[in-house]
Specification:
Length: about 575
């Protein structure tokens, strides 16, 4: 159905564009994955772009939700300003960026957001055609600067062509968007002649193909209808063959020399991605160090938060470099398949394991604990819950025929259910255990036995999780009514099974009261997961309290890192 066109690039246009682009990438994702041969033929460029934009969309929707209904004048309680919406889009893409192309897309959106925010002065209806031209130009330049060694015939080339065409156009946002789309499509059609590996496979660049899709959604945003034709087969565009996966992955052509090897993607075996909190000077040094460790280096972001992407042989050294620069988190290390182009091919892909556990965890400490137990983890930072696509990606990464999914958060049950349904459609048997806290997940994981029948394992894990009561300690951010009475800003809140049960002023005393209430109904084990902001002495204090007051109850303590809550408590 045709969309109602936007006149200016305002907050509503940002929201519309993100939604249309996400839907378009969803339709094109498999096709883009199939033509992914550079820089690594791992068949995930479409998926990575989709997940990156999904995170951007979620951030924009959160910005609108924070302003109420989203129907009032810009900047009022009804709708965010253009600056707010654009910055939310950029931030969401930054924290959710996946892979090489997804990281570059995040920088493109950040570059656009910087110009759009500057264009908005609080009184204008939004940015017009000239503002959109500037945004596309700045986006292309910022993306190119973020890549350590830009290569032509990639998404960078397509972005630059889009900016050039937009600059040459004269008109409103619809005219500029159409010109950018057509310029990008023409540049995409030429990519097989710029990169030898694309020419040999008979495909256009996958990242560039994704960007053209995103620009097509921009045209639809301002003109009401999608542009005719797509870059891989529409009118005026290159018609390319989508190769079978065996052609790209299992039998890559042997490089003839150093230049050919560069085109073919020979190189490091690991992809390392992490978010990094660091100062600009430290990031400049980090770029130099990572550039010496590997290739495909892309560092995007700013204002203290960065997304780092690099291909290396020594994944540990890449992470250590991040530690030296600042605080890395959401660290993802992927070993490229032993049969892909990047590692030379020649061996069959690794066999799926029979069963795996995928769990959402609230802090780096618990991610390590779950990982040691064999689980594939998805890190959920405070205020940044994972999207369904991120959970699906984790299920795929587990590479198993059967998967037990632990959301560990009551608010994630619908997201986890959607992810499970998507994974099932891909032939993976998935059981969703509705764990509402990470301590319930720990209890479930403790009885997990991959050797027994799937249904029996799921029943045992579900039973263990259900038998575990959960609680947490948090600090009140504002005065409000609770089940335990009125709390004031700064009060320590003890929540049992999701409801405020205790209000106190001291962390240790509040934790004691919570544990006493939970143990009134009995229990054999108390699990304590300490957040970074919990007092150092609280673990020993609570262990002693349980030991003295409840002789038959054991206590186990874990360090959860930056998990949002001061303390997580489980009683089973």
């Amino acid at each position: 159905m045709p969309q109602v066109p936007q006149t200016f690039f305002d907050a509503l246009a940002v929201r519309t564009w993100c939604a249309l682009a996400l839907a378009a990438l969803g339709r094109a994702r498999e096709e883009i994955d199939a033509i992914n041969v550079y820089p690594v033929a791992d068949g995930d460029t479409g998926t990575n772009l989709y997940l990156t934009l999904e995170s951007a969309c979620a951030a924009v929707e959160a910005a609108f939700a924070g302003h109420g209904t989203g129907t009032g004048p810009a900047g009022t309680a009804g709708i965010p300003t253009l600056a707010d919406a654009a910055r939310a889009m950029a931030h969401g893409a930054l924290i959710g960026a996946r892979g090489n192309s997804g990281t570059i897309l995040a920088q493109l959106l950040r570059g656009m957001a910087q110009v759009l925010a500057a264009e908005a002065d609080g009184e204008s209806a939004g940015a017009g055609g000239p503002g959109l031209c500037l945004a596309l130009r700045h986006a292309a330049d910022a993306a190119r600067q973020a890549v350590a060694h830009p290569v032509e015939g990639t998404i960078l080339t397509v972005a630059s062509a889009a900016a050039d065409a937009a600059t040459a156009a004269d008109g409103d946002c619809g005219t500029v968007a159409r010109a950018a789309y057509e310029g990008a499509s023409a540049a995409l059609a030429a990519t097989p002649g710029q990169l030898a590996v694309l020419g040999r496979a008979g495909v256009v660049d996958a990242g560039g193909r994704g960007l053209v899709t995103v620009l097509g959604a921009l045209v639809e945003t301002f003109r009401g209808e999608a542009p005719g034709g797509v870059a891989t087969g529409g009118a005026g565009a290159a018609r390319v063959r989508v190769p079978a996966r065996s052609e790209v992955i299992e039998t890559p052509p042997a490089p003839d020399g150093p230049d050919e090897c560069a085109d073919a993607g020979c190189g490091p075996a690991f992809e390392v991605i992490y978010l990094l909190e660091a100062e600009d000077a430290a990031v400049a040094r980090l770029r130099e160090r990572l550039d010496g460790l590997g290739d495909s280096l892309v560092v995007v972001g700013g204002d203290g938060l960065w997304n780092v992407h690099v291909h290396v042989d020594d994944a540990g050294a890449a992470v250590e470099a991040g530690v030296e620069a600042g605080r890395p988190y959401r660290i993802r290390i992927t070993h490229f398949g032993v049969g892909d182009v990047h590692t030379g091919g020649g061996r069959p892909p690794r066999e799926r394991v029979q069963r795996a556990v995928v769990a959402v965890v609230p802090g780096e400490g618990l991610a390590g604990l779950y990982g040691e137990a064999g689980a594939t983890t998805v890190l959920a930072r405070p205020g940044e819950p994972p999207a369904s696509g991120e959970l699906v990606e984790a299920v795929r990464r587990a590479h198993a025929r059967e998967v037990v999914l632990l959301p560990n958060d009551a608010d994630l049950r619908h997201t986890a259910a959607a992810a499970a349904e998507q994974a099932r459609s891909e032939g993976i048997r998935v059981a969703l255990i509705p764990t509402r806290s990470a301590v319930q997940g720990i209890a479930a994981l403790a009885v997990h036995e991959p050797e027994r029948r799937f249904d029996e394992d799921v029943v045992a894990m579900t039973s263990a999780a259900g038998a575990t009561r959960y609680a947490e300690l948090a600090v009140a951010e504002r005065q409000s009514w609770t089940m335990a009475g009125i709390c004031q800003t700064g009060d320590v809140l003890g929540l049992i099974d999701g409801d405020v049960a205790v209000i106190g002023s001291d962390v240790a005393a509040t934790a004691e009261a919570v544990i006493d209430r939970m143990l009134q109904a009995g229990g054999e084990m108390v699990t304590l997961v300490l957040g970074d902001e919990a007092p150092e002495s609280i673990a020993a204090h609570l262990e002693g309290r349980v030991r003295e007051g409840y002789l038959a109850v054991d206590t186990v303590v874990y360090r959860g890192g930056r998990q949002g809550a001061l303390l997580l408590i489980g009683v089973e």
